[in-house]
């Protein structure tokens, strides 16, 4: 009889300890660790339905040995970013150059949240006045072009609120391009990948690239015949350049977005 009573008592103790151990040690509650931390472990059911050692660190997602409640107890914290700053001015006036805008991290990602995206953006640009505020001279040379997206942000009215000239469009057939148009992988150069030989492209000539009273943009080919091979260069990557032939001048551009550009 005593033996049975002792056995029952020990069974109650083991059962109680087992329950307390489960409540204290099991799962990821209160133990979410950054990075890969092999000490951030416990004993419980894993996500693959195997009972045993499981982890509550960020690395467990990659190694697939998280505890069953990892995503509930350790929800992903996404990267929090500030707004973009205003674009800087062009680095150099009167020539193709680069402008920059930045943002900063307000909260780092956690618990396997996605890494923060880029914090700096660059874009091709060109200032039409020098440091003294004087109008830059009209230079001869290749056409400098960039994505049509840049043109969407151009002002439509002058300093006194008067509407600017609407400009025009020139269609070209691309004859050649350098290999450097496709090897660049920076955000402000992605548009250059669509510059492909044999395709027709549209290039808008608008103020301020269209100089006052000139009615033309640098390299637009208005003075050239259709057989003339003209040169162009991408703003933002001076090694991306090539040749094209003029097809016609139109009032508006009608090419697909990836084949639509603006003179700079």
From TrEMBL:
Gene giving rise to this polypeptide: sbspon
Keywords: Disulfide bond, Glycoprotein, Signal
Keyword Disulfide bond appears in the UniProt entry: yes
Protein's name according to its UniProt entry: Somatomedin-B and thrombospondin type-1 domain-containing protein
A Pfam family assignment: SBSPON_C
Residues making up the signal peptide according to the UniProt record: 1-18
Superkingdom assignment: Eukaryota
Boundaries of every SMB domain copy: 24-80
